[in-house]
Amino acid sequence: QVQLVESGGGLVQAGGSLRLSCAASGRTFLNYAMGWFRQAPGKEREFVAAISWSGGTTYYADSVKGRFAISRDNAKNTVYLQMNALKPEDTAVYYCAADTTLRSRPGVEPTPYNYWGQGTQVTVSS
């Protein structure tokens, strides 16, 4: 079993920054690809960013490229999402997810991720 706990969400003005954290349980966190997804009211869950088990490969949705950065600290079993230049359209519940199958590349769809956090709300005011 893997438990994921997100933190760091909140209310911020447009142009501001937030850093989300996701703390994971499990002795083999090093082997997990990790992803961030988000879901706005009335919309489907969408991919935001993903990082490979080593941290050497990262993927981003086009809508956040150049503004968001995903990173991980395997010693702390934690993955981060640094969000800069936030826009009102970034408002959503943000979820972190773990894919516990060792793969060469992290997924950019929800399907390979088999553990999910409870989500943290990010609200960007205009």
Task: Give your account of this protein's structure.
- Strands 2, 4, 5, 6, 9, 10 and 11 form a seven-stranded mixed β-sheet that branches.
- With 126 residues, the protein is mainly β.
- It is globular.
- Strand 7 and strand 8 (78-83) form a beta hairpin.
- The mean pLDDT is 95.
- The protein has strands at residues 4-7, 10-13, 18-24, 33-39, 46-51, 58-60, 68-73, 78-83, 92-99, 115-116, 120-125.
- It is built from no helices and eleven strands.
Molecular shape: globular
Reading the helices and strands in chain order gives EEEEEEEEEEE
The SS-based structural class is mainly beta
Low-pLDDT residue spans? none
Helix coverage percent of residues?
under 10%
Q: Major sheet, described briefly?
A: 7 strands, mixed
Give the strand tally: 11
Number of separate helices: 0
The proportion of strand residues reads over 45%
How far apart the termini lie comes to 40 Å
Mean pLDDT: 95
Q: Rg from C-alpha positions?
A: 13 Å
Provide a concise account of the structure shown:
The protein is mainly beta and 126 residues long. The chain contains no helices and 11 strands.
Give me some keywords for this one.
126 residues; mainly beta; seven-stranded mixed beta sheet; four-stranded antiparallel beta sheet; 11 strands
Topology:
Layout: E1 4-7, E2 10-13, E3 18-24, E4 33-39, E5 46-51, E6 58-60, E7 68-73, E8 78-83, E9 92-99, E10 115-116, E11 120-125
Parallel strand pairs: 2-11
Antiparallel strand pairs: 1-3, 3-8, 4-5, 4-9, 5-6, 7-8, 9-10, 9-11
